[in-house]
Design a protein that fits this description.
alpha/beta; Immunoglobulin-like; TIM Barrel; 3 domains; 9-stranded mixed beta sheet; globular; disordered N terminus
Length: about 600
């Protein structure tokens, strides 16, 4: 969000907040209580899809998460989306609404997270299209189960590599400046991407900060829309107010930058298209999805005219969305487009994108299928859907996946939550991810809040990032029985070393930006976390180094002290670490090295 103090909350589609929701393109409100099959004839008479042929409900992994899956009916009109509701049975057997979600893009599954072990749930699915929703179908009941007897049981498996340790989630946005320690810190943290733009100073681009990022070894993404704003010394004119002037500026600017030999790896056409804080009020009133798409096409062609080999990415949406008007409130003009619309437009116009991009920074749940919570794990579902969308449009080739801003302002500075983002982005196997910068962080050398004011001190998340930077070899599979306890790790076969991070994020009360209504606005009590690491050896002993990164208070700290110990490897090839009082907001890092 580039330093915005807050942003508008999106529609909240959870049972605690709303008693009804209007299905996009549908006929009106849908209550959270189970619907009657008696509505079937009325619904079908409107030309809406028939009930799904089947609906199932099953636990996902070892956490209390349930996936609703359904098979669309082959009769009647085809479904383009669905409304999904989850119900829990109370002690008297009465169904209690737990939440509902809307999905587009002909979806056939949705995930509800952070539920309760042992509770009996059922799901109800209405297939939908532009005309509305059809008759619902209810799943058989399901209950998440666990054998874990402590607050969380976490596993790392060195025998299950999931991809190279490439530090894809270490990108930074804007907050890099010369004269301080940013270059050294970026190198230490193995920063893989810098997203920003050089400012205009006296009508000339000042590349000093850009050169710091390049010298650190990071790749670079140029935000062309920010350059256009800087060129105009404030809110710029809309490109469609004078296409000729805008196109000439793009071609001239890109030609000049290419000739300067400054390193630009990727060109980002715009940042959060359709956002309300870029143009003047008069300019914003003219913004439409169609004009924004035309702007992308005009810009794409102008960049390619100046540099035929340019790597162009987009659309850098301010949130993941997969159907039109997903984030538009009733009665308010829609200024944004969704990813499906964009990819269809790109395919129609034969655009060859180096990457597709969007942001993961929203602080209100819903309306996407996975978003009944604010858990960073939602990112995994978004990335999976993005890959499905790309596979269905082979003419687009194989663009990379960039999440080029991530982390909520309430959570970014808390180590336990920071690990959750690193874990989700790693498990999703994104190609690049960039931390967002909030409040005053963009305007100084803070590396998006990893450093204190002026870049002179290190804040807690800096130190969990050094552990992430030390990961090498292959990233490995992890599990957790608690959605608020997350893990990410690596195994290096050449050094016989397993490196891991475990984080616990429940609340955000330790930061001033935590709002009263935010889920978990009160710090949770400490809990016990048992960590089991599967190593490639069945005998011998290992050195274990364990480091606590405190997160209950966000203040400047020096390097945390590691605690050393020795353990024998079990016959099953495992090593166990138990943390008895794992505090909300804390992170722990470990290294396990074979010594015999």
């Amino acid at each position: 969000m580039l330093g915005k103090s807050r942003f508008s909350r999106r529609p909240v589609l959870c049972a605690a907040a709303l008693s009804a929701v209007t299905l996009v393109g549908g006929p009106g409100p849908v209550g959270l209580s189970p619907a009657s099959a008696a509505t079937s004839k009325v619904a079908l008479s409107r030309g809406v899809p028939e009930a799904p042929a089947s609906v199932t409900l099953a636990q996902v992994g070892v956490a209390p998460d349930l996936r609703v899956s359904w098979k669309p009916s082959t009769a009647g009109v085809a479904a383009t989306g669905a409304l999904v509701q989850l119900h829990a049975a109370n002690s008297s057997g009465k169904a209690i609404a737990k939440g509902q979600i809307i999905c587009g893009n002909a979806c056939t599954s949705a995930v509800f997270r952070s539920l309760s072990f042992g509770t009996r749930y059922t799901a109800e699915v209405w297939a939908s299209d532009a005309a509305g929703k059809g008759t619902p179908k209810v799943s058989p009941p399901a209950s998440p189960t666990t054998s874990c007897t402590v607050g969380a049981c976490v596993t790392f498996d060195s025998a299950q590599p999931i991809g190279p340790a490439n530090h894809a989630a270490s990108g930074v946005l804007k907050s890099v400046y010369p004269g301080g320690r940013d270059q050294a810190d970026m190198t230490t943290l193995k920063t893989t991407m810098f997203r920003g733009n050089p400012p205009y100073v006296g009508g000339t681009l000042n590349w000093s900060s850009w050169k710091v990022a390049v010298a650190s070894g990071a790749q670079t993404t140029m935000m062309l829309s920010s350059l256009w704003k800087g060129y105009n010394s404030g809110p710029p004119p809309t490109p469609w107010s004078d296409w000729s002037r805008y196109t000439k500026w793009v071609t001239t600017t890109v030609t000049s930058i290419v000739a300067s030999k400054e390193k630009v790896d990727y060109w980002d056409v715009y940042n959060e298209p359709g956002g309300a804080d870029y143009y003047s009020a008069a300019g914003y009133a003219t913004v439409t999805p169609a004009l924004l798409l035309q702007q992308f096409l005009v810009t794409y062609r102008a960049i390619r005219k100046a540099d035929p080999s340019a790597a162009i990415i987009g659309p850098s949406l301010q949130h993941w969305s997969d159907y039109p008007s997903e984030y538009t409130r009733p009665g308010i003009a829609n200024h944004e487009f969704d990813m499906v619309t964009f990819l269809n437009f790109a395919a129609k116009n034969d655009l060859k994108l180096a990457a597709i991009s969007w942001h993961e920074i929203d602080d209100g749940p819903g309306p996407h299928p996975s978003e009944n919570t604010l858990l960073p794990a939602n990112i995994e579902d978004h990335v999976a859907e993005a890959r499905t969308l790309l596979a269905a449009r082979p003419s687009l080739g194989k663009p990379l996946i960039f999440v080029n801003e991530y982390a909520l302002p309430e959570l970014q500075s808390i180590p336990g939550w920071d690990v959750a983002y690193l874990a989700a982005l790693t498990d999703a196997r994104v190609n690049s991810a960039v931390r967002s910068c909030w409040f005053g962080d963009c305007g100084g050398p803070t590396l998006d809040g990893l450093l204190g004011p002026g870049g002179r001190t290190t804040l807690p998340s800096y130190w969990d990032r050094t552990i992430y930077a030390s990961m090498s070899g292959d990233m490995i599979a992890t599990t957790s029985t608690n959605d608020n306890v997350t893990a990410v790790g690596s195994y290096n076969a050449s050094t016989h070393t397993v490196t891991g991070l475990i984080g616990r994020g429940v609340s955000c009360n330790q930061v001033p930006t935590c709002t009263k209504g935010f889920p978990g606005s009160t710090l949770a009590a400490p809990t016990t976390v048992k960590v089991t690491i599967t190593v490639p050896w069945k005998t011998g002993s290992v050195d274990v180094s364990l480091t606590r990164v405190p997160g209950s208070r966000i203040v400047a700290i020096g390097r945390p002290t590691a605690r050393q110990s020795h353990q024998s490897v079990t016959a099953a090839g495992t090593v166990t670490i138990s943390m008895q009082k794992f505090a909300d907001g804390d992170a722990y890092g470990f290294t396990i090295t074979r010594i015999s």
